[in-house]
Write a structure and sequence with these properties.
Elements lengths: L3 E5 L2 E4 L9 E4 L2 H6 L5 H8 L9 E8 L6 E8 L4 E2 L11 E10 L7 H11 L14 H10 L1 H6 L5 H4 L18 H7 L12 E10 L2 H7 L5 E8 L2 H21 L12 E2 L3 H36 L10 E6 L2 E9 L2 E10 L2 E2 L18 E4 L7 E6 L2 H6 L2 E2 L9 H7 L2 H10 L3 E4 L16 H10 L3 E14 L1
Parallel strand pairs: 3-4, 18-19
Antiparallel strand pairs: 1-2, 2-3, 4-5, 5-13, 6-10, 7-9, 7-11, 8-9, 8-19, 12-13, 14-17, 15-16, 16-19
Length: 478
């Protein structure tokens, strides 16, 4: 990719040429820019620029890496009337996302109880490949979860009404229709609500190590030494099956509409088609399933803290800071060349990062910007950032979503012994609970980019502002 042009220390661009309808903009410092050339990330980004109705630019975040057709860490917006919807540009784990739960505990107060706390969390939050949590939901109740989201579960006692204000989309994306979800997807999902799953999904007890923006941190309710809990999981088999089902359906759609693709994994449907509406209705069902999944896990986390410390979650100050979605398409308005336009913003491994002026930001954070939650790899720091108004112009209101892989899962398992990761965690004094020591290598720090580089890149590009840095105390995963 010799044609990459450096715009400033944190922004690079592949100029429009050939079949490209728009340029590719890459966010990252020089280390990120060098690493992102090592796989097919930029080739996939260039391929995406030829999709119909794409607006202004294709964006690649600093955690970007090669994905299914469309790069992980990729953001693209398509005209609401004349554009497209692409399942591959959203991802298989629909609404994979992160939630951060605050406490009023201090790290030095819980050291003795940390092993017991991790045992309780590991017991109460099922994890691992095929993990299940039989809540006794009927098929009709599952459909209501898909269509009504976290609010339906809160009405059944899983949390509090104030939780909803601190979840993206208030825990429910309008337009979901469970009748557009296959029987197989429902079968896979019905016993997976309240489970982490495997892969890069985790639950982590953290301490706020450094406050980097005091005013915003106070507004978010964060302080140095504070114990917080981060959850990273998505729509499990329910969402994965929805994506698989519709990618299969799109094969015939491409034939019927004589669509030729630069990459067969970049299949799409036009926004005004019946097929687009059906997919979006199913995708929104998976989005709501994932919000609901994290809501039940939140209740299980609160229960674990209550069991460990003998106090109510209310007394422990266990309020949600925020819940952000990755792997999603949303109908949004952004200003392009001085005009407000409606567009479907596809974020695949990217986080919405709206600034203080956007009405979508919860009232409690208006004037501060939307919280942006960035998990690191296992054993490294994580971050809370705040969205900036400049992000709407630069990246359709988007930021990075994590540290970003540098190795495939297979390579990590092959090249990094589990014992090396376990030794690293022990040397840092981190309590860890894992279902599979074999799979622990997938998430080793050596398989990921430096999260500090990633976060400094989005701050340097004026997409987000760094608020707080967290260090892990205990990790539970599949």
């Amino acid at each position: 990719m010799a044609d990459i042009r450096q715009i400033n220390d944190f922004i690079w661009e592949i100029e429009r040429s050939g079949s490209m309808s728009v340029p590719v903009r890459i966010f990252g410092n020089s280390n990120i820019a060098a690493s992102i050339k090592k796989d097919r990330t930029l080739l996939q980004a260039v391929n995406a620029t030829s999709l119909p109705g794409i607006i202004r630019r294709m964006c690649v975040m600093p955690d970007g890496h090669e994905g299914y057709g469309f790069p992980v860490g990729g953001v693209a917006a398509f005209d609401a009337e004349e554009g497209i919807i692409s399942p591959g540009a959203i991802g298989f784990d629909i609404n994979c996302g992160v939630r951060l739960i605050k406490t009023n505990l201090k790290a030095n107060e819980i050291k003795k109880e940390l092993p017991k706390l991790m045992d309780n969390l590991f017991k109460n939050v099922p994890s691992g490949v095929g993990s299940k949590n039989n809540l006794g939901l009927s098929q009709n109740e599952l459909n209501r979860v898909a269509e009504e989201g976290a609010g339906y579960l809160i009405d059944k006692g899983y949390g509090f009404n104030e939780d909803l204000e601190l979840i993206e989309e208030k825990g429910c994306m309008d337009g979901a229709d469970s009748s557009k979800v296959s029987t197989l997807a429902k079968k896979r999902g019905i016993n997976q609500l309240g489970t982490l799953g495997a892969g890069n999904h985790f639950l982590e007890v953290q301490k706020v190590e450094h406050i980097l923006d005091k005013g915003t941190a106070e507004g978010f309710g964060l302080f140095e030494g504070q114990v917080v809990v981060m959850v990273h999981t998505g729509s499990r088999g329910y969402g994965h099956q929805i994506c698989s089902d519709y990618i299969e359906k799109l094969i015939q759609y491409q034939k019927d509409n004589k669509i030729e693709l630069s990459d067969p994994q970049l299949s799409y449907v036009f926004t005004k088609s019946k097929e687009a509406e059906e997919y979006l209705s199913a995708m929104r069902s998976a989005v709501n399933f994932a919000f609901s999944n994290r809501q039940i896990i939140t209740c299980q986390i609160r229960k674990s803290f209550e069991e460990t410390f003998g106090k109510s979650s209310d007394a422990l100050g266990m309020n949600i800071l925020y819940d952000v979605a990755h792997n999603i398409a949303k109908l949004e308005e952004h200003t392009v060349e001085g005009k407000r336009r409606k567009m479907y913003v596809h974020r695949k491994g990217a986080t919405r990062a709206f600034g203080p002026s956007r009405k979508e930001v919860p009232k409690t954070y208006r004037g501060l910007g939307q919280p942006v939650i960035i998990p690191g790899s296992m054993g490294t720091a994580s971050y809370v950032l705040s969205g900036r108004d400049e992000s709407s112009d630069e990246s359709f209101g988007s930021s990075c979503h994590g540290s970003g892989r540098t190795m495939s899962r297979h390579q990590a398992i092959r090249d990094i012994p589990a014992s090396k990761t376990i030794s690293d965690l022990k040397s840092k004094g981190i309590e860890f609970r894992v279902r599979s020591t074999k799979l622990i290598s997938e998430e080793a720090i050596w398989a990921y980019k430096d999260v500090d580089d990633v976060v400094s890149s989005v701050e340097g590009a004026k997409i987000s502002t760094t608020v707080a840095r967290m260090a892990p105390m205990g990790v539970a995963k599949g």
